[in-house]
Design a protein that fits this description.
By secondary structure, the protein is an alpha/beta fold. Helices cover 38% and strands 13% of the residues.
């Protein structure tokens, strides 16, 4: 068979990029599909231990020391993610295994979503959409975009279907009286993006793209990173609490590692303040999710736009009831353009490796 003469690449579980472009990939490489085998994973690995020199994986496929132990001939890991927290990096270094990641392929798309989430939270676009679709606009009047008031849509919706009892009617009227009383404050621009102080946690390729977009909106940018960047003019804070205290919003763009795990905790959130907004497009566990939920429910911060979570796809149920929270199912990288670019990059990395040429997007020690 022709595939017997192609370079072998092990795939433990198929990345989306592989699923979409499997036909094109298979013209150049013979893929060993562990997930289709009836053998236990360890037996499957043992069967191909001597021949496998490359693995293709994604962020949801852990490449552990045990897996590496079963693959003594392995020399390359190609991951379709930018993050590398699913790969045992020390073991790879010890075994001289090269790693290629997604490089800068996703940077612009992630930055777009980060800015979109920030605007959505500040202007309550998703909440306003639900308000209109529920038929509440003709009944209740203006929706409080940019305010911090929470509206019980279920309660108000009763007005549109049947006569509420006196207690419910009183609650509705009191809620809207409070909004109208505070409306002048809302119109002062509480939800406005321009002029906001935005702190970026992780000024890598994605963080820089976020900064570029927000500067165009008139935002004031500062950042926290492993070290100060010599080639940027944004203010640097070595302490993330200080960054929070001097920001109206924090956007999380950093990688997940031992140092960044739960880096955004209650102390940081309280420094950010009751009007502050957190956006996360990095990795879920960078934020202490339990403390985030507590701060949101208790009004310690103003809102959150979240594309990533600690235990995906399971989310804290409390988040579903909050109008100042916008949720996205880890799709910052999901555009047709980025997937096409990712295919080219993955293909290029595999071709380079099997041709003894330099990788296109090597993951270098930092």
């Amino acid at each position: 068979m022709m595939e017997d003469h192609l370079p072998q690449v092990l795939v433990l579980r198929p990345p989306n990029c592989f699923t979409f472009f499997e036909t094109q990939f298979s013209k150049k490489f013979h893929f060993l599909k562990a997930w289709e085998s009836q053998l236990p994973t360890t037996d499957f690995l043992a069967t191909h231990a001597a021949s496998v020199k490359a693995i293709l994986c994604n962020a949801s496929t852990p490449i552990t020391a045990d897996i590496l132990h079963h693959l003594p001939s392995l020399k390359l890991i190609v991951t379709t993610s930018v993050g590398r927290d699913h790969i045992n990096l020390p073991e790879c270094r010890r075994r001289s295994i090269s790693i290629a990641n997604a490089g800068h392929v996703f940077s612009e798309d992630c930055a777009d979503l980060a800015v979109g989430l920030l605007i959505d939270v500040l202007r309550k676009i998703s909440a306003a959409d639900r308000f209109v679709r529920a038929g509440l606009w003709p009944i209740s009047g203006d929706h409080p975009l940019g305010s911090k008031m929470e509206i019980d849509y279920g309660l108000i919706a009763i007005l549109g279907s049947k006569s509420p009892n006196m207690e419910m009617e009183s609650k509705i009227e009191n809620g809207w009286r409070c909004f109208k009383k505070d409306k002048a404050h809302v119109l002062e621009g509480e939800g406005k993006l321009g002029g906001k102080r935005v702190g970026i946690v992780g000024l890598g390729s994605i963080g820089l793209e976020v900064a570029k977009r927000l500067v165009a909106f008139g935002c004031i940018i500062s950042y926290n990173s492993r070290r100060e960047k010599a080639n940027v003019s944004y203010r640097f804070y070595s302490n993330v609490c200080e960054l929070g205290a001097n920001s109206d919003a924090l956007i999380i763009c950093c990688a997940l590692n031992d140092e960044t795990h739960h880096m955004i905790n209650k102390e940081v959130m309280k420094a950010l303040g009751k009007e502050g907004v957190i956006v996360n497009i990095g990795r879920g566990p960078v934020i202490d999710e339990k403390e985030l939920v507590q701060c949101l429910v208790e009004g310690e911060i103003g809102g959150a736009g979240l594309d990533v979570f600690e235990n995906e796809p399971d989310l804290p149920k409390e988040l579903f009831t909050l109008d100042n929270v916008v949720l996205s199912p880890h799709l910052a990288v999901y555009t047709s353009e980025s997937f096409s670019d990712l295919f080219d990059l993955v293909m290029g990395n595999l071709e380079a490796f099997f041709s003894n040429k330099p990788l296109l997007s090597p993951l270098l020690d930092e």
